[in-house]
Write a structure and sequence with these properties.
By secondary structure, this protein is an all-alpha fold. The protein contains 16 helices and no strands.
């Protein structure tokens, strides 16, 4: 893509959202670098900031892959391979790729974007937690440090107004860590902020949907555990909608269960009937999915317990 056209796209979208240059580039690059990008006079290093600027403006980066450096693109592919190995249960291979990627970044950090550095830190942290090498508190510390690489003023009570997809993902992981530490109020505030930002600012609805199906599942669970049943039900219903929008079902039964769980406890007129329908549908879907993919072994048990205690 022509760099003048890229600059015009960034400038027009920034002005449309009424974002200052200083707010947009905070933690990514200097205002003078952003100015050169918008004017089409950016150098090679400055053009490496463009993917993060696009994401923070809520625009898809698919069309600008060609402007990422070859080294940066290679690193991104390696991280994807490590993620895939982890999904397939090959933790040894995932760690091998992660170590190789870390060595690659350490040798040539100048051509690697902050976004890919953050991606790798998040993956390293996730693998370390799965292997019980670090505590939840250490996980939270690492995630917050990764976020501050770009959102330099981040604090739990000072969340960034404009975010890249990666910053949204890190914040969601931070929220889960706070939830596991028992700080539900903080976790809910963070995930609610991310949900609102993605729904309002990001144009690519497919990207939004893929993030929100997971986020709504987590947030509806947090609201339920906090006894905020109205909010839990509303967010779970949003999550069910986004599952239907994308056709993705991987967390649909869990989200339906969250909705049924909160409906049963709110117990207003019509709640029990809706909860019963959702619970039975979630149980049927869980048993079907278990034949073809990995499903939490406790999910079906929890759904049956909900039916027996509240809905029978």
């Amino acid at each position: 893509m022509d760099k003048v056209l890229i600059g015009n796209l960034i400038k027009d979208r920034r002005k449309e959202l009424k974002i200052s240059q200083e707010d947009l580039c905070l933690g990514i690059c200097s205002a003078s670098s952003l100015s050169r990008i918008e004017n089409g006079t950016a150098g090679t290093r400055e053009r490496s900031y463009i993917p993060s600027l696009f994401e923070r403006l809520g625009m898809s980066t698919d069309s600008i892959n060609e402007i990422i450096s070859e080294d940066d693109y290679s690193v991104r592919q390696m991280i994807r391979q490590a993620n895939q190995a982890d999904v397939l249960g090959n933790r040894v291979e995932a760690w091998r790729i992660v170590r190789e990627t870390r060595d690659r970044i350490n040798k040539d950090s100048r051509n690697i974007s902050f976004t890919n550095e953050q991606r790798l830190i998040v993956l390293e942290t996730e693998l370390s937690r799965k292997d019980n090498k670090i505590s939840v508190a250490e996980e939270l510390k690492r995630l917050e440090n990764a976020l501050r690489m770009t959102a330099v003023n981040y604090r739990p009570n000072n969340l960034p107004l404009y975010m890249t997809y990666m910053e949204c993902q890190i914040l969601s992981e931070i929220a889960i860590a706070y939830s596991e530490l028992g700080q539900l109020e903080t976790a809910i505030a963070i995930d609610s902020h991310v949900k609102g930002f993605m729904e309002f600012y990001i144009e690519d609805k497919v990207v939004v949907a893929n993030y929100l199906i997971i986020l709504c599942y987590n947030l509806s669970k947090m609201y339920g555990l906090a006894g905020q049943y109205n909010e839990s039900i509303a967010v779970a219903r949003d999550g069910i909608y986004w599952h239907e929008y994308t056709g993705i079902q991987r967390t649909l039964p869990q989200t339906m269960y969250n909705c049924a769980w909160s409906l049963a406890r709110r117990n207003e007129i019509g709640d029990v009937a809706e909860a019963k329908r959702l619970a039975y549908d979630a149980l049927e879907l869980t048993e079907l999915m278990a034949k073809y993919t990995r499903v939490s072994p406790t999910l079906a048990k929890n759904i049956k317990k909900l039916i027996d205690e509240y809905l029978s």
